[in-house]
């Protein structure tokens, strides 16, 4: 696979007939982002003017043809699918998806809007119903029951602390979960506004509440080894699809993995995808959280670090000035009030988040420069966390653990 593989599929020129078949405006398609499933399979998202269209790249021609046929059969005569065998690409419009068989008919409802679609994994459809605005999450039917359980269990635990979308209806056989809309705006939409710092501080408080609730929710474990394996998977795909970045990212991984494995704090209930686009602030200053798909048991520092690195990323994307980015991060930490053990683990998890996001952005052709920018920040001092204080805390905790170990051996 060449260094320019993603560039080779970054632009698609369709014929007017193919654009019409897919219901797209005339013009080329520009690759927004890709998700690797293996070295033979990518999930794709293209921009078509103001719209998006998803697809898949498969290296095996027979497999591509099989997926195309099954996707077309799933949606019958109304299937908006197109096979480009010379590029190894299948395009899927208006919810056509063989593994999400209910999606296309949901998208076809009057007033429905396909908000997001990751092929053969999940999608979100906005629905304007008689009793208000709702969002339908469509997942592989086998996964619907587990997701519904986690949402309901977390709802009971956090109701008094912050809001999450209410599960209004569940069709488990079809893999459809319908949720109420969250009021307010996401922190991402509040970037550069006067409300960002207040929202970040409230988000920190809400996350601390989530981490303090009972861990009785049956959620998968995502500890140190799972975080390392996640990053290793991304690195393997980088080696295939973006080898010009591989050695830089792989070299950084040694220090990242060593720091992650150096210690471990008590495990808590995590959101595991906690960042500005998932956090909503309403007019009363109350926080709402989206997407509980990734709820897991792990170290609190993972969620904290992910939020902090995303504020850093917004500066790299020129969405925030450095001063604004630091102010948001500081406000978030003021709200969360990490204890000593969590503070010590934040730098390691921030570096892990930087490396993981560097891999993610390597698969976004028009933002791939951010991969190098993120990885260059690994092991840099974190100015919004007092490094001298952390060093003192480290010595203190080491002494406390030594005393506990000596006491237990007597």
UniProtKB/TrEMBL annotation:
The keyword Transmembrane does not apply. It holds the Pfam family APH. Residues 144-338 form the Aminoglycoside phosphotransferase domain. GO terms for molecular function: transferase activity. Keywords: Transferase. It comes from the Bacteria. The keyword Transferase applies. This is Aminoglycoside phosphotransferase family protein. It comes from Abyssobacteria bacterium (strain SURF_5). The lineage of its organism: Bacteria, Pseudomonadati, Candidatus Hydrogenedentota, Candidatus Abyssobacteria.
């Amino acid at each position: 696979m060449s260094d320019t593989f993603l560039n080779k599929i970054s632009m698609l020129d369709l014929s007017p007939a193919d654009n019409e078949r897919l219901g797209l405006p005339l013009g080329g398609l520009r690759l927004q982002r890709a998700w690797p499933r293996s070295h033979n399979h990518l999930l794709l998202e293209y921009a078509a003017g103001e719209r998006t269209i998803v697809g898949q790249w498969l290296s095996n021609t027979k497999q591509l043809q099989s997926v195309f046929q099954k996707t077309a059969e799933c949606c019958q005569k109304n299937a908006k699918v197109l096979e480009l065998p010379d590029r190894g690409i299948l395009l899927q419009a208006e919810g056509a998806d063989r593994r999400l068989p209910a999606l296309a008919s949901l998208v076809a409802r009057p007033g429905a809007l396909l908000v997001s679609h990751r092929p053969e994994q999940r999608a979100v459809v906005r629905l304007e119903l008689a009793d208000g605005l709702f969002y339908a999450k469509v997942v592989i039917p086998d996964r619907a029951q587990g997701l519904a359980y986690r949402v309901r269990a977390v709802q009971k635990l956090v109701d008094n602390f912050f809001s999450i979308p209410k599960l209004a209806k569940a069709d488990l056989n079809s893999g459809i979960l319908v949720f109420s809309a969250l009021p307010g705006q996401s922190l991402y939409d509040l970037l550069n506004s006067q409300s960002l710092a207040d929202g970040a501080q409230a988000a920190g408080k809400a996350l601390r509440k989530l981490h303090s609730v009972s861990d009785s929710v049956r959620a998968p474990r995502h500890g140190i080894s799972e975080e390392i394996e996640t990053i290793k998977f991304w690195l393997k795909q980088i080696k295939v699809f973006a080898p010009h970045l591989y050695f830089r990212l792989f070299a950084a991984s040694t220090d990242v993995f060593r720091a992650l494995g150096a210690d471990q704090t008590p495990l808590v209930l995590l959101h595991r995808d906690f960042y500005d686009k998932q956090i909503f602030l309403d007019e009363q200053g109350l926080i709402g959280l989206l997407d509980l798909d990734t709820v897991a048991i792990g170290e609190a520092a993972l969620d904290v670090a992910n939020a902090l690195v995303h504020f850093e990323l917004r500066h790299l994307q020129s969405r925030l000035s450095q001063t604004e980015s630091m102010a948001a991060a500081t406000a978030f930490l003021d709200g969360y009030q990490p204890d000593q053990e969590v503070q010590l683990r934040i730098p390691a998890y921030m570096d892990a988040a930087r490396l993981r996001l560097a891999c993610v952005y390597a698969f976004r052709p028009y933002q791939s420069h951010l991969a190098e920018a993120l990885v260059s920040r690994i092991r840099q001092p974190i100015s919004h966390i007092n490094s001298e204080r952390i060093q003192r805390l480290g010595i203190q905790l080491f002494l406390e653990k030594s005393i506990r170990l000596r006491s237990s051996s007597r």
